[in-house]
Amino acid sequence: MSEPGIDVADLTVRFEGNVAVDTVSLSAPMGRLTGLIGPNGAGKTTTFNVCSGLLRPAVGRISLFGVDVTRRGPAARARRGLGRTFQRMELFTSMTVGENVALGREARLAGSNPLWQQMATRRQRTTVRESTAEALEVCGITGLAAETVQSLSTGQRRLVELARVYAGDFRMLLLDEPSSGLDHAESEHLGRILRSLVEDRGVGILLVEHDMALVMNVCDYLYVLDFGRLVFQGTPAETQASPIVRAAYLGAEDLMEMADLSDPTGGEG
C-alpha cells in the first residue's frame, strides 16, 4: 500500500454563496504522479489553494502524510513537507540561479525566524549548499548556477522554480501548470524530470496542467474536474477512453490527438 501524501475528503468551497468546489475527494500518494485536470474555471486552482492552506474550505478535510491539516496554515504545512509552485513564477530575477534555488532550503531551515541568516550554524550552511547542488543537478541546470534569472528563457526559469521547491526537501509537491510557456521540447524535458522525482526519489506530486500531451505521458492517475465537481478518475488510458470525459471536457478530437502523442506507434496496429 502506498504511503499517504495529500488526501482531500468531501471538499466544498464557496465564494459569496457560489459553490466553486463541490464535495471533491481525491488522493495523491507518495511515489505517484497524480494529475488534476479540467477546463478553465473547473476548480483546480481553488482545490490547490485549499491543499496548500491558502483557503479554508466550507466543508471537508485535508490530510498530509496521514495527519489532518485542515486548520493548519501554509507555513505549518510547508514545515511538514508540502511544497508548491505557482502558475505565475515567483523568482528573484536579479539574483543568480544558485541563490534562488538555495532560498528553498533556507526558508525551510529559517521557519519563522527572520534572523536565520545571521544565526545559521556551519552545519546548516553546509546543508543549504548540498541541497542546492543536488537540486541543480536533478533539474539539469547546474551549468546555470551563476547566471542571473533575468537572463534565462521561460523554460529555464520553470526548472529553477522546480529546483527551488525540490531543494526545500519537500516530500509532497503541488505543481500548478509547470509547463506554462514552454515549447514541446522543454515540456518533454520537464516531464522526464518529474518522472525521475517520482520514480527515483519517491516524491509525491499533484499536478495541475493544461498540456494534455504532457499529462497523458507522465501521470500515473488522473482526476477530472468540471464545474467544481469530480466527473471522472482513472489512468490516462481510461481517461482518454471515457465517454464522460469526452463529453464533459476534452472532446473526442482532443483525446485522439493525445492518444497519438502518447502512443509511439501513432496508433497503428
Verbal overview:
It is a single chain. The longest helix has 18 residues, at 184-201. The strands form two sheets. Strands 6-7-8-3-9-10 form a six-stranded mixed beta sheet, sandwiched between helices. It has a four-stranded antiparallel beta sheet with strand order 2-1-4-5, with helices on one face. Helix 7 links the parallel strand 7 and strand 8. The protein has 269 residues and is of the alpha/beta class. 42% of the residues lie in helices and 22% in strands. It folds into two domains: 1-81 and 171-269, Rossmann fold, CATH 3.40.50; 90-170, no CATH class. The chain is globular, with a radius of gyration of 19 Å.
Please describe the structure with a list of short key phrases separated by commas or semicolons.
4-stranded antiparallel beta sheet, 11 helices, 269 residues, Rossmann fold, single chain, globular, alpha/beta
The top-level CATH class of the largest domain is Alpha Beta
Largest sheet: 6 strands, mixed
Distance between the amino and carboxyl termini: 35 Å
What is the residue-averaged pLDDT?
A: 86
Q: How many DSSP helices?
A: 11
Return the CATH architecture of the largest domain: 3-Layer(aba) Sandwich
The number of distinct structural domains comes to: 2
Helix content: 40-55%
Report the β-strand fraction as a percent range: 15-25%
Instruction: Please provide the ordered H/E string of secondary-structure elements.
Output: EEEHEEHEHHHHEHEHEEHHH
The tally of beta strands, per DSSP, is 10
Strand order of the largest sheet: 6-7-8-3-9-10
Q: Mind telling me the CATH superfamily name of the largest domain?
A: P-loop containing nucleotide triphosphate hydrolases
Please state the oligomeric state of the protein chains shown. Answer: single chain
Structural class call reads alpha/beta
Large-scale geometry: globular
Q: Point out poorly predicted stretches.
A: 261-269
Whole-angstrom Rg: 19 Å
Kindly report the CATH topology of the largest domain.
Rossmann fold
